[in-house]
Amino acid sequence: MITGCGVVSPLGIGVPAFWDGLVAGRTAVGPIVRFDTADLDPRHAAEVADFPTADPDRAGAFLLRAATEACTEAGLDVATLDPDRVGAVIGTTLGGMQIFERWLAGGDVATTEAERIPYHAPAVRLARALGCRGPVATPQLACASSTHAIALAADWVRRGRADVVLAGGTDLLCRFVVAGFNCLRATAETARPFDVRRRGLVLGEGAAVVVVESMDAAARRGADVVARVLGVGGAGDAVHMTAPDREGGGAARAIAAALGDAGIRAGEVDFVSAHGTGTPYNDAMEAAALGRLFEPQAVPVNSIKGAIGHTLGAAGAFEAVMCTRVLATGTVPPTAGLEELDPACAGLDVVHGAARSEDVAVVLTTSSGFAGTNAAVVFGRA
Amino acid sequence: MTDGVALTGAAWTHAADDAALAPLAEPLRTRALRAERVTRLVLVAGSRALELAGLAVDAGPPRVDVGVVLGTMLGCFLTNAAYAERLAEAGPPGASPRLFAATVSNAAAGELAIACRLGGPTATLSAGRASGLVALGHAVDLVRDGRATTIVAGGADATGEAATRWTRDAALGLAPGDAAALAVLEPLAVARARGAAILGTLLGWGAAFEPRAGASGGDAALDAALRDAGLRRADVARIVGATTAEGRPDPLAACGPLALVATLAETPPGTAIAVVATCPTGHAAAVVARAGDVA
């Protein structure tokens, strides 16, 4: 069960601001203002604004804020629970990179800051803040990290390894990552998922967290259920380190595994939250995978990366939060940035232009990443 | 408790230099030579574990029922440092696409998947020194749930100046070493049916976290693993802590898998053992296993 959600997003702090921005089709993409970009090209991204913090661990600060909102929505006071039964699974691709950049340059970094450099640091920081004594881990699946985080949390709850697991992801914008994607020539100034004019991804930042809880634990607390996790799946491409399998083999296997785990057929899925990065290869790969799985009928699909950018290790968790709201409201946010659907993706019913009302009971979210990793989760209405 | 999961091949290495890669067959050797340090270690140990299990393949379509789960504490830390140093020195023109592509900690698992045609579930997990046992545990769950027929799983970490300096600056009291230890896991019935040599049977696993500095979640992890295995402490002949002697390089994520494989090798068949790994980060994990082919 999902009993609560929280986000720190480029569209605003908190789920209402995030959701309202998505439904309105707004984009938070613009010139980067938080650090010097004079020598970067492109220099656009979706930054989190209005988040005043002197915390050098920006990703960790995002995470704590998102987790607090998720716990509040879940009505969850972790201090009242058995700490042995509370866990955390937080994906990231950058973690304490902002501190790392300063540390590597020989800057003055305190021991407590140095502790927050590695990728496991955000999960550790959250677990310490909550007093977790259950399982804690950091999935490292590049841009599929937080989708896998939710899948792993659901696995742990199903297997009785924990009653409550906070799952999600956090990442931040910094020179390290912007220069990196630029040097791969994978970036653009505008994200246009599935558009015929798409040229590349636009980076974003933020954190998204969901509370994954067993049915019994939620019932004991009298918690409202936001959505159900019906199935999870993952698969590797085993093709290339940075480019996706052109045929979408790994993505299709991950989706099929999630559907199989949920015990449902593709035809029962009412909406798909695509990875939809806006790179030529990713979107074509997804069109191939989804086209094969959902043929002959097209299922409504969207991508939120035109709105909040590609938030990397947090992307899947943001999309999961969006999915819970789609299930609750029947409203599918449009794909910001998409104006003219690529004929190569014509088999997809990509929602764009304006939000659409649908009868949605089952949704699928899918993520893919470097090193040929793919993860998928199926959610059901509460 | 649940179905036992057979361990049918295991390999480890502490060497990542070019000489250590020389025995590898092509195209694996070429792939390893151009890889970063932790990936080299994983390619050597992972490919050897598959070979020992009789499951080595280096060509053809991805094997959709064979996956990889790797645990790593530092992951691509050294690569991050190398990439960031060049970026700092030369600005964006100095940013290396090759290095940046390897600044994800799942690069090692991805390289192994490509080299050994692993198209099933793939994951890389970080949980401090407990990473390797958490990876083995996740692999056990994947096999139990029927999501894969075979998983190559274990832990790996690599050392270098940046890694050593970071563990010192973070006051972790660890001296990272080069190490990878990976094992092949599959359903007991499948392993028996194909006549594989069974080194041990994994019966259960558990993980825990200790939020207080200076305390350990090892006991909680062990209790969770025993519950998962349906055993009591009295049922286990040996409980082995995956510790490292002071002054010795610490294999970090590989410490648990190394201790597990070594303990199984010296334990009479049918005897249950447990291995526990803890970390100053607060992470802890444990695995309960029985030596030999006795579920």
Write a structural description:
The complex is a heterodimer of chains A (382) and B (295). Chain A has two domains: 2-221, Thiolase/Chalcone synthase (Peroxisomal Thiolase, Chain A, domain 1); 230-381, Thiolase/Chalcone synthase (Peroxisomal Thiolase, Chain A, domain 1). In chain A, 33% of the residues lie in helices and 22% in strands. Chain A has helices at residues 15-23, 58-74, 97-104, 111-114, 121-130, 145-158, 175-183, 215-221, 249-262, 280-294, 305-308, 315-329; strands at residues 2-9, 12-13, 29-31, 44-46, 86-91, 136-139, 164-171, 203-204, 206-213, 227-236, 271-273, 300-302, 331-332, 349-350, 356-357, 362-369, 373-381. Chain B has 295 residues and is of the alpha/beta class. Chain B has two domains: 7-193, Peroxisomal Thiolase, Chain A, domain 1; 200-291, Peroxisomal Thiolase, Chain A, domain 1, CATH 3.40.47.10. Chain B has helices at 18-21, 28-33, 37-52, 77-90, 97-101, 107-116, 131-144, 161-169, 188-193, 218-229, 255-265, and strands at 5-13, 66-71, 122-126, 150-157, 179-187, 200-209, 238-241, 272-278, 283-291. Classes of the chains: A alpha/beta (382), B alpha/beta (295). Chains A and B meet through helix 3, helix 5, strand 6, helix 6 and helix 7 of A and helix 4, helix 5, helix 6, strand 3 and helix 7 of B.
Parts with pLDDT < 50 across at least 5 consecutive residues of chain A = none
Helix share of residues of chain B?
25-40%
Mean pLDDT of chain A comes to 96
Q: Going across the major beta sheet of chain B, what is the strand order? A: 3-2-4-5-1-6-9-8-7
The oligomeric status of these chains comes to heterodimer
Find the count of extended strands of chain A (DSSP E, 2+ residues).
17
The shape of chain A is: globular
Strand portion of chain B: 15-25%
Helix content of chain A: 25-40%
Structural class of chain B: alpha/beta
Rg of chain B, alpha carbons: 18 Å
Kindly report the CATH topology of the largest domain in chain B: Peroxisomal Thiolase, Chain A, domain 1
